[in-house]
Design brief:
It contains 12 helices and 9 strands. It has helices at about 15-35, 50-60, 70-85, 110-115, 135-150, 165-175, 195-200, 205-210, 230-250, 250-260, 265-280, 290-305, and strands at about 40-45, 70, 90-100, 120-125, 130-135, 155-160, 175-185, 200-205, 215. α5 (about 135-150) packs parallel to α6 (about 165-175). The longest helix has 24 residues, at about 15-35. The mean pLDDT is about 85.
């Protein structure tokens, strides 16, 4: 039964149908033109803890922020320039800089970063071991919210933690594309494989890219680099001895927090271990990756024996 009638029951003529089609095509063309004029938008999400640890280790041979300076302003500008090249037809929404601070109170350095144009600093907390807490959830909240409201079409995520997988999935569920950016690993990998599998694209920044933004602070100790290196057994025993002291000072509750991360130590704990070992040995272990692994092995063996 043909229902294509006007109110009086007359079937429209071919001219009327053609006029309606022309009007529909005109509306579609106007809509497509408006869509074409709306620029794509991207944002950059930076896990500062990952950047400090990875760039510091790559350029200065240490993850300890106390031993090097990071030109955050210069690095952020470099990230923005890179995004401008990759997302050529897109505009920047802003850079989100995620870091940790005691009681979420900005440090002087974090305040200066927050004052940069187009940069938003988000702070998680720091626990007793100087480990960041709450940063991954902040990243997920921002990524998901911006994607849900169609505020971004692309997200450049600078990080490596497996906990960021849920943030990526949330953003992708609303149609945003997530691109993982990383810092070249000094040894092994510094980004979780499940995260690498989940993102839409990957990009790694090498030593030449990072070197201008990391400056090693002057070293005032360990001048005896010409002396023979300690033996592996000596370093392993030292790692175990430091672990016994660590356990006595912090207790089994903090030990339980470390065990699921085996064989990796949180950056602050690893740096405390390295600094204490260098102090007792009277020489640097930086640049001696094998001995540093043995040191960690001794540390872990002692902790696992006590649990």
């Amino acid at each position: 039964m043909n229902n294509d009638h006007d109110p009086q029951g007359h079937t429209p003529g071919l001219g009327t149908v053609a006029a309606r089609l022309e009007r529909t095509n005109e509306l579609l063309q106007r809509m497509l033109a408006e869509v074409a004029k709306t620029p794509s938008t991207h944002a950059i999400f930076v896990d500062a803890g990952y950047v400090y640890a990875s760039a510091g280790l790559l350029v200065a041979g240490t993850e300890d922020r106390r031993n090097f300076d990071l030109d955050a302003e210069g690095l952020i500008e470099a990230f923005i320039d890179k995004a401008r090249t990759i997302f050529a037809d897109s505009r920047l929404l802003r850079v989100y800089w995620y870091d940790g601070a005691r009681r979420r109170i900005h440090t002087a350095e974090q305040q200066s970063i927050a004052e940069l144009p187009d940069v938003k600093v988000r702070l998680g907390n720091l626990n007793a071991n100087n480990q960041q807490k709450g940063v991954d959830s902040l990243i997920r909240t921002d990524l998901e919210s911006l994607a849900r409201h169609r505020a971004i079409s692309d997200a450049a995520l600078v990080g490596g933690d497996e906990d960021l997988v849920s943030a990526v999935e949330a953003a992708q569920g609303y149609g945003a594309r997530v691109h993982l950016w990383g810092i070249e690993a000094a040894e092994g990998r510094n980004q979780a494989e499940p995260l690498l599998w989940e993102v839409d694209s990957q990009r790694t920044f090498d030593l030449d890219f990072c070197r201008p933004y990391v400056t090693r602070r002057p070293v005032t100790m360990y001048e005896n680099e010409g002396e023979p290196l300690p033996s592996r057994d000596e370093v392993r025993f030292l790692g175990a001895r430091i672990a016994a002291t660590w356990l006595g000072e912090r207790g089994r509750d903090q030990l339980a927090e470390l065990l699921p991360g085996h064989p990796y130590l949180p950056g602050p704990v690893d740096q405390d271990l390295l600094n204490q070992a260098e102090k007792e040995l009277g020489r640097s272990l930086r640049g001696h990756a094998g001995l540093r692994r043995v040191l960690r092995d001794g540390f872990w063996q002692q902790l696992q024996a006590q649990f």
